[in-house]
Amino acid sequence: MAANNMDTVLQAVKDIIGYRFRERLILWEAMQAAGSNVRSAGDREFADGNKRLAVIGDTVLQLVLAEEWYSGGTVREQVSQALSQVASNANLDRIGRQRGLQTFVN
Fold first, then answer.
1. Res 69: pLDDT
2. How far apart are CA 43 and CA 61, in angstroms?
3. Where are the alpha helices (DSSP H) in 31-75?
């Protein structure tokens, strides 16, 4: 993919999510679905699309939800419910589609 197209995609995604990445190639990796023909960018290799990065993202999201639950002092079932509802792939997919991110997934 041409560099200017990559730059255009990354800027559009950053505008949608409102976050500026220190390492822009991490965002590029995140936009590569499993089976994508894009296998690397710069010194980053991602032969299986964003699957390896998704493991990190899932873990971070679980940590954030658990910390929020812990500081709130609510019962344990609430964190389990939040993890299964908020952090589910179906919910994350729905949120991404609502924001139009599917347009930029390769």
1. 86
2. 26
3. 51-72
